[in-house]
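Example S7 (structure tokens).
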């Protein structure tokens, strides 16, 4: 016959090992499933924020360029529009010529 304290320590040891086994298994499964999903979710969110920020900055830069060209060039607004339109056409043509077929 074993003593009650020995039985409790064996039961506690068995419970600790079982708990450790279950926790380790859950961590492995979580690392293989949730980890990549979190990475993809962060990539989508940060990409969307970056896209919106870049669009806003580009818009503000174009507005500033039109206002600066309008104040520096003689004539009306048409001169600023002509200059920036030509500039954007040249840049667009360069990008178009570098595109992949």
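Recovered sequence:
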């Amino acid at each position: 016959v074993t003593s009650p304290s020995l039985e409790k320590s064996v039961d506690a040891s068995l419970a600790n090992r079982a708990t450790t086994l279950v926790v380790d298994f859950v961590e492995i499964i979580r690392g293989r499933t949730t980890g990549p999903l979190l990475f993809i979710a962060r990539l989508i969110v940060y990409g969307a924020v970056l896209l919106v920020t870049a669009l806003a900055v580009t818009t503000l830069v174009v507005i500033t360029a039109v206002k600066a060209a309008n104040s520096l060039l003689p004539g009306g607004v048409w001169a600023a529009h002509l200059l920036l339109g030509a500039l954007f056409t040249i840049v667009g043509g360069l990008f178009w010529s570098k595109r992949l077929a």
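Notes on this example. The longest helix spans residues 4-72.
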